[in-house]
Amino acid sequence: MTPNEFLELIAPFKDRVYRLAKRLLRSTEEAEDATQEVLLKLWTHKRKIKDYKNVAAFSMTMTKNFCYDKLKSKQAQHLKIADTDYEEKNMPLQRQIELNDSINWVERIIAELPEQQRIIIQLRDVEGYDFKAIAQLLELNPTAVRVALSRARKKIRIRLTEIHNYGIT
Amino acid sequence: MALHEIERLIEAYEKGETNLREEEVLKRYFSKEDVAAHLKMYQPMFQYYSENRAEQFTRKLPLTTPFRYKWLSVAAVLAIAFGIYTTKRPMGCQEDIVGTFCKPEEALKEVSQTLMVISNLFNKGTATVNYLEPLNEGTAMLNYLNEIEKSTAIIFKTNP
Fold it and tell me: Distance between CA A116 and CA B18 in Å, rounded?
């Protein structure tokens, strides 16, 4: 397989892999590193690619596992993720201006959700996966996915309503 | 799409009971400017979802083919073979090196001449060795001493 053929193969899902990594790692830089890692792993095993029925689904699972490991090792080291630093006090002016942009708020709200809910929101509401595909990727049953999704949507709605009302009054 | 229908979908949406097509309807509704005031807070959410989908991975992947060591060994063998081939057989004949001849006849003449000189010197050496002959005679004379030994042995009966 030539590099060009490989790039063609990954073109339909490489952005999806990147977005999932970014949703989990909450950092553009780290998400890019993770995506590169996953895609290069795929490249080194390119001879086995034919054996996988669904390369896209396989890559998404790989990304999920990779990001989980990354997050776990970070927790073990007691490192604080700079990008989750969404405290509202003493924010620089630049940050405050950004916050006026309500779309940015949505990203922050999702970032506060637990990992699993973040994945589910990403896969369902952004990528448009059906419950079966999400359940397979997360090794859950579809009902559990539905419950977690409902919880996440509710939390987002509550936070959005708070911010919305704050803006009005 | 009627407002009450959107409200119903929103409610089902929160319970996780909408299908992908219905969620698409919601996304389309909230992408428009005129959204009902009491649903306004959902607008950034659905807009964000649509926007996020467009985010791309732009980093260039460093795709390199793994180095083939198999061919490296073949190349090494070829290089060594070529090296031996070129050093073992010099391209021209250099007469200026001592003891080197380009014509075989010349070499043969020189070698036979040298061997002649060596054999002459060799003969000189053997001529001097001839003086050793009287020495041999002397040792032959000494053999008579053995006879004396025999007789003394008889006298003293050392050898029964």
Answer: 20
